[in-house]
Write a structure and sequence with these properties.
This protein is α/β, with parallel strands linked by helices and 194 residues long. It has a single domain (3-190), classed as Peptidoglycan recognition protein-like (Lysozyme-like, 3-Layer(aba) Sandwich). The protein has six helices and ten strands. The strands form three sheets. It has a six-stranded mixed beta sheet with strand order 3-6-5-7-4-10. Strands 1-2 form a two-stranded antiparallel sheet. Strands 8-9 form a two-stranded antiparallel ribbon.
């Protein structure tokens, strides 16, 4: 299948997609999303693939609409328009994408780079080229479906409540809370969002 589900309708994105009714890995909506004005990007922080991400989120009573595995396959765990619990205060207006990446300085066999978010530098592992390509396609199609600009704030720190209230486009988890650094500013640049 090469389609995602947005508000109950299939949208072809031209890359492999595994949807929840095929995989039996689906999250129920967590209430209603008030609007969709952003796509939120995350990294998983673990070694497991999309099925493991689903299990881990489920155990933690969290959820997300999409996950992009290391091979670039998109897994959809809920309708893109369902409210999920992945990005705190932005859950009511944000559709989420987890990207499988340990992002750890101990990532065995992974090439590392230095990232700077919230004014501090740290080492993390690169995303695979297949993931970057798939995330680019998925984000572009979601932005198109919701009438959002394909752009992210240029800041590499958490935005203020006032700034978040006007965001339209794409945000990193780090834009929403200073507790998080994912998915890093470099990925946003690689995707052509900043």
């Amino acid at each position: 299948m090469e389609s995602i589900i947005v508000s109950g309708r299939a949208i072809n994105i031209g890359i492999p997609v595994k949807v929840w009714h095929e995989t039996k890995l689906g999250f129920p909506a967590v209430g209603a999303r008030t609007e969709t004005r952003a796509i939120g990007l995350h990294w998983t922080g673990g070694y497991g693939g999309a099925a493991q991400v689903y299990r881990t989120l489920n155990e933690r009573k969290l959820s997300v609409q999409f996950c992009v595995d290391v091979d670039g396959v998109v897994w959809q765990f809920a309708d893109a328009s369902a409210r999920a619990s992945h990005i705190g205060s932005a859950n009511g207006w944000c559709c989420g994408i987890e990207i499988c990446n340990p992002a750890s300085p101990k990532a065995v066999g992974r090439e590392m780079y230095t990232e700077t978010v919230h004014g501090r530098s740290f080492e993390c592992s690169y995303f695979y080229p297949a993931q970057v390509a798939a995330v680019r396609v998925l984000v572009a199609k979601l932005c198109e479906a919701y009438g959002l600009p394909y752009a992210a704030p240029p800041e590499t720190h958490a935005l203020t409540t006032a700034q978040l209230s006007t965001v339209r486009g794409v945000v990193g988890h780090f834009h929403v809370t200073a507790r998080k650094v994912d998915p890093g500013a470099r990925l946003l640049r690689e995707l052509g969002l900043t």
